[in-house]
Amino acid sequence: MHCPFCRHADSRVVDSRTSDDGASIRRRRQCPACTRRFTTLETASLSVVKRSGVTEPFSREKVVNGVRKACQGRPVTEDDLALLAQRVEESVRATGIAELDAYEIGLTILGPLRELDEVAYLRFASVYQAFDSLEDFEAAINLLRAEHEQAAADESSVDRSTD
Ligand SMILES: [Zn+2]
User: Fold this and answer.
1) Could you give the CA distance from residue 100 to residue 5 in angstroms, rounded to a whole number?
2) How far is the CA of 13 from the centre of ligand 1 (A)?
3) How much distance in Å is there from the Cα of 28 to the middle of ligand 1?
4) What spacing in Å lies between the alpha carbon of 37 and ligand 1's midpoint?
5) How close is the Cα of 12 to the center of ligand 1, in Å?
6) How many domains, the chain?
7) Residues 105 and 92 both lie in one domain
8) Is 53 found in the same domain as 39?
9) Along the 163 residues of the chain, how does pLDDT read in single tens digits?
10) Domain carrying residue 51
11) pTM of the full predicted structure?
12) Is residue 136 part of a domain?
């Protein structure tokens, strides 16, 4: 690893620590030339296999670009999108699988996007799951509606129990 200060071609590891969740290793390094110290963070690389068979590194930016169009005209900020991409990466890493196909990435986007904005979710799902009829939309909307009703029922039962 090059020294970021003087560009010396080598550095020495002086300390290594695994993060609490075990997903990364932080290393403290020292440059033998200028003696300055710096930290590196090591995480397993995540790959995405595209439909064409091409493998590329997972990128949060690509997740954001993928959902941005579905969020057009919706009350969704750039921060919301960044947070969504972060949640997608966390759930992808949590699977422990180093290589996922683009379809699986899409699946992990659906959950957090639905929490963020249901209209954007329906738009994204319609493209991603290739809705080809009004019935497909109807089924997706009915599912959302049923979950709203369930959530409302849960809430009112909580209200009653606190009386
Ligand atoms: Zn140096």
Assistant:
1) 36
2) 13
3) 13
4) 8
5) 11
6) 2
7) yes
8) no
9) 889 999 999 999 999 998 877 778 999 999 999 999 999 988 878 899 988 889 988 999 999 999 999 999 999 999 999 999 999 998 888 888 888 888 889 889 999 999 999 999 999 999 888 888 889 989 999 989 998 898 888 888 766 655 5
10) 47-130
11) 0.69
12) no
